[in-house]
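Journal club prep — side note

Before the paper discussion, L.F. wants everyone to see what a predicted structure for a comparable chain looks like in token form. Sequence:
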Amino acid sequence: MSENQNNTNVETENQAEEKKSKVTVKQVFAILGIVVLAGLYLLTLAAAMMGQGSVTGLFTICVIATFVVPLLIWVMIWGVGAITSKKTIASVNLGGEDHIDDVNAEIEKIKSENEAKKEDVAKDQ
């Protein structure tokens, strides 16, 4: 191998390592959500084991947070995608504009197959 090819391989490996070690905004939000929910659950469990009177309120907060925290994470990911003009998993129109051409092509294919079947039936009669 030439020295140029070795340098290219090293650069490619370095780029792959950088991509692997890069932490995304989605990952930060997800980890933050996990930490918040796990903390609430552990706090509620500890309060219940100690016999605190506020366990019912903490349990209610946990139930509400179980639904609200993921929803907030979705909104944050969607907001980051909207600001950066990138499609994310939280994008509202996941299967929309990008797939319109594919859907139209499939419709045309089905129409042409149906027309061919109609012509075959007409020939048989």
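L.F.'s comment for the group: Residues 3-94 form one domain. Keep this in mind when we get to the figures.
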